[in-house]
Amino acid sequence: MGSQLSPYGTESTYLDGQLLVAMPGMMDERFARAVIFICAHSAEGAMGIILNRPAANVTMPDLLVQLEIVPEVERIRLPQKVGNMQVLMGGPVETSRGFVLHSPDFHLSQSTLPIDDGICLTATIDILRAIAAGRGPENAVLALGYAGWGAGQLEMELQANGWLNTPADAELVFNTAADVRYEMALRRIGIEPAMLSMEAGHA
C-alpha cells in the first residue's frame, strides 16, 4: 500500500500525464495548494500546467478578440461553449502565451502533443482559430503560461516531499471546477483534505 505516494519505483520516474499535488509544506508561494498536470518530463527538465488557478477577469471570448481571431462585433456570435471554456493561469513562465489542454478528437500535425489517452496539448494559435469557428476539440481548457523545472529540479522537489503525484484523468482536467481540483486530486491519492490541513496546523 501507499506505493503511489512514492515518486520513485523501479520503473521510469518520469511523470508525463501525472498530477502533482502541492503538500502543505510547499515553500514556493507560487505553487501553494497547486495541482499541476505534467505535460512533459525528461532528463532535461519538466513542464506542466497549473489546473486550479482561474485567470482573473479573462474569458475565452476576451482572448479571441485581443488576439484578433474574431472581431469585437462577432463576439456575441461565438458558440456558448467557447464562452464557458475555462481560462487558467497555467504558471509563471511565458504568461502571455496560450497552452490548450484538450481531448484527443482534435489534432494538428506538427503541433499537437498527445500526453496520455484522454489529454493532448496544443500551443499554437491555430487551435484557438478552430475553437472560435466551432471546429475545436470537444473538451478543452486554456492556460496562460506554464510551470517549468530545470534538469533534476523536479526530482529534488519530489525527494523533499514538496509534491505528491497521482495519475491524471480527463474528468478532473476538463469537467471539474478549478476551485475543487485540489481536494479532488488529494482524494484520488487517498488523502482526506481536512486531515491534511489539521496536520499542517500542528507542524
What's the CATH topology name of the largest domain? VC0467-like
The helix content is 25-40%
The helix-and-strand class reads alpha+beta
State the CATH class of the largest domain: Alpha Beta
Our estimate of the beta-strand percent is 25-35%
Q: Which stretches are poorly predicted, pLDDT < 50 over at least 5 residues?
A: 1-11
What is the CA-based Rg, rounded? 17 Å
CATH architecture of the largest domain: 3-Layer(aba) Sandwich
Number of helices: 7
Q: Which descriptor suits the 3D outline?
A: globular
N/C terminus separation: 25 Å
How many structural domains?
Answer: 2
Output the CATH homologous superfamily of the largest domain. Answer: VC0467-like
Average pLDDT taken over every residue = 88
Using DSSP, what is the number of strands? 9
Largest sheet: 9 strands, mixed
What is the helix/strand order?
EEEHHEEEEHEHEHHH
Q: What does this molecule look like?
A:
25% of the residues lie in helices and 28% in strands. By secondary structure, it is of the alpha+beta class. It has two domains: 105 residues, VC0467-like (3-Layer(aba) Sandwich), CATH 3.40.1740.10; 86 residues, VC0467-like domains (Alpha-Beta Plaits). The chain is globular. 35% of the residues are buried.
